Structures are given as structure tokens and as C-alpha cells.
Amino acid sequence: MGKEKVGLVALVLIVSSWAVSSASSSPSFGGDLSRGKASLTFGSASSSLVLNRVGSSVVLPLDGNVYPTGSYNTTIHIGQPPKPYFLDPDTGSDLTWLQCDAPCVQCTRTPHPLYPPKGDLVNCNNPMCASLHSGDYKCDRLERCEYKVQYADGSSSRGVLVKDVVNFESYRGGFLRSHVTLGCGYDQPGPSNVDGVLGLGKGGSSIVSQLSSQGLVANVLGHCLSTRGGGFLFFGDDLYDFPRITWRPLSYKSKHYSLVGTAELLFAGKPTGQKDLFLLFDSGSTYTYFSSEAYEALSSRVKEELRRKDFTKAVDDDTLPLCWKGWKSFKDIREVTKYFKPFALSFNSGGRTKTQFEVPPESYLIISDKGNVCMGVLNGTEIYPNANVIGDISMQDKMVIYDNANHFLGWASEDCSQLPKSRAFAA
Ligand SMILES: *[C@@H]1O[C@H](CO)[C@@H](O)[C@H](O)[C@H]1NC(C)=O
Ligand SMILES: *[C@@H]1O[C@H](CO)[C@@H](O)[C@H](O)[C@H]1NC(C)=O
What we know:
Blueprint: E1 9-13, H1 31-35, H2 47-51, E2 58-65, E3 71-78, E4 83-90, E5 97-99, E6 120-121, H3 127-132, E7 146-151, E8 156-169, E9 175-187, E10 196-199, H4 207-213, E11 220-225, E12 231-235, E13 246-249, E14 264-267, E15 270-271, E16 279-281, E17 288-290, H5 292-307, E18 312-313, E19 323-325, E20 343-348, E21 354-359, E22 365-367, E23 373-375, E24 377-379, E25 388-390, H6 392-395, E26 398-403, E27 408-413
């Protein structure tokens, strides 16, 4: 263990007693902030952009995998001139931040040079600042908007909000340029192998909410993670084939992508007795976390299935809590999927039709570096009491769409190893 990331924000608070001390961290006010409106530019846009109605949609290739890397990242270009940064896309949190030379109190080794905060500071009275802080908070003398985000895995970032230009390479060569608010993080204790986090939550500070409030894209995002590693992330609502998607309403009340209503856990199409599961979707979580009872129900079904097969518990493998040895050392999950059964989360849609989120073996198992099969659904009791968190592993080979404009979450099976083709633009 140790490589997995759990991504929900547990806490967002203001740290008002700390003063940024360096001259490099006092960029000028005014300028871009007062200029207001963002500009939308399609750079080297070819005519196919228009023909295919890609319009403002953005497609971002993803790198990484569930195992062994334990996270995904996408390259975002920030600043003027734009510089590349590897960011971890997290639908469990709102704020996008970069490890920042403010200077750093604590920063980890980053793939790129630390982000130099040349942009405008966000004033403490800015609504974006308020949207990050629930309840009362006091502006300090300098009226900067300070933030602290704490994630479920214990990692955190602390810094100040700045405004800067973000350049998204749009699908097929165009690009979309916008002034957005992001965090200049000068204090990140703990390990990290990226330059920062791309916040894709529901809140107003989320990058897609910001682009959407500037009229640049619809407030919709989605991802397609491949079981072969990589995949893509997208912003906007014209990249999927609407009728193919299974939709479930998203809770208005929750700050996270939680579904309205509960689901029943089925194993190999049969009920497990686990019925009232609250689900939330979090791309910042590598694995899937179930409540103790649901975890017990699932793992005991899997063990029962294996008892009749040539697998034994791999006690010497601590990659994940439950690993099994086969008759040989495996390299690819596809060598063993036929020995395992799928599970599903089934929703009662009112009428006779049942909606399901199906999870085939390759979306709940991994092959460890010791060649064993390990279960990627974990007991989440300690990290997420009362919630069942669908993490990256179980969202693989599916298009997962977070429609904030209409408050729905959707999914459909998909080969995520290729960027979307023009089929998505038919209709
Ligand atoms: C992030 O992506 C880059 C290239 O796209 C890749 O070289 C790097 O290994 C990735 N990092 C992680 C942690 O996945
Ligand atoms: C899940 O974790 C909790 C807290 O550590 C523990 O009490 C419980 O027994 C675990 N459940 C299972 C099925 O292992």
C-alpha cells in the first residue's frame, strides 16, 4: 500500500496568521483583475473545429494508471508565456493549485520548476475566496485570500489564491485561454509526484465552474480511464453520445459528487444483502472504498468463488490487504479475469427498469508486482464513514460524466485507450 491516493477534501480553512514573506510573492494588484472578462481564443483552429461542433470542448490526454503508479495526471499550460505542469485531476475537491515559489515553506520534488506567482493576487473580498471558505473568515491586513486544503489521505496544501492565464489545448489543435483563480501552494508536506492538483469538484472555484461562468464551456466534465493506463479527461458537453449514457441524479446538498438515493450491491448478478449504499464518485481516489459491511459482503463472495479454483491467499504480498497467488506469476489482469465474476451497483429507477453500474473483474482487481491478484476494493470505514467511494479502479473503461449544469452523473462502457473519435459528434 502507500501509493494509493484518496482525494476528498476533508477540510478547507483559512490560515490568517501566516504572512507571505518574500518580495517575489507580492505581485501587483489591478491589471488583469480589473480587466475582467476572459478572452476566448481559438489559436491554430482548423475548420474541423467548427465542422465537428467541438466548439468549446476541451480534451486532455491522461497519463498514469491505477497500479503501479497509483494516480493519473494531465498536462496544463499556465502563465504567460505558458509553461507546462502535471496536475492530478481530482473530482473530490474544488481548488486547482500548483506547488509555488512564494517561496516554499515545504514543497516536494516537482516534475517541472515551481510555479512562479507572477499573476494577480485574489483579494479576500472576491466571491471566489468566499466560495472556498464555508462560514466566517476574516481577511488579514493584506487582504490576500489564503487557503488550506486537506485531503482524505492526510496530504494538504496551503497558500494564497492568484489569478493567471490557463491555456487549454482544445480538441484538434485549437486552444482556449482564460483567466482563472488558482492556488499558489507554498506548503505541501508529504509525498507527491506531480506539480499540483486539478480541482474538478462541484464548487465555484472548480476549474470547469470557472470556465463555465465565463461562458467558455458547459459546466460538464468527464473522464475515460483505460485499463491499459492513460485515457482522457474532457470539459464540455458535446463529446459523448447522449442516448448511450446511463444517468443518475446528483445530490444538491452534498459538496461532493454523491448520488441521490441508494444502491444495492450485486455479485455475479445476485443480491448480496447489501442494499442501502450511498455512493460518491472521486477521481482523486485510486481504489474503491466500501463500508465495512459492503466490503465484507463483496470480499467473502470473491473468496467463496476462489475456493473452488487454483488460487491461495498470498500472505507475503502486502500490496493491498487481500491478495491471491495463482498457479503462476501473472503479468496482465486479462490472464485471470475469467476466474472472477463482476459485481454491480444497482439502482431502483422507480419503474421496472433497473439501472446498474457494472464493475467487471479488471475494474476491481490488480496484478501486483509479485504477480499476484489483489482486490482493489478496500474497507473504507476509517477514511470515509457512511460513504462508498467509487475510485479510479472501478471507473476504468467507462466514460464517466459529471454534469453540473443539470446535476446528473452518467456513465457508459467505453474503450478509453483512444481519444474520442468523430462518432461522438454525430447527431
Ligand atoms: C505525468 O505525465 C507525464 C507525461 O504525460 C509522465 O511522463 C509522468 O510520468 C506522469 N506522472 C505520473 C505520476 O503519472
Ligand atoms: C473495516 O475497518 C474497520 C475499522 O478499522 C473494522 O472495525 C472492521 O472490522 C473492518 N471490516 C472488515 C470487514 O474487515
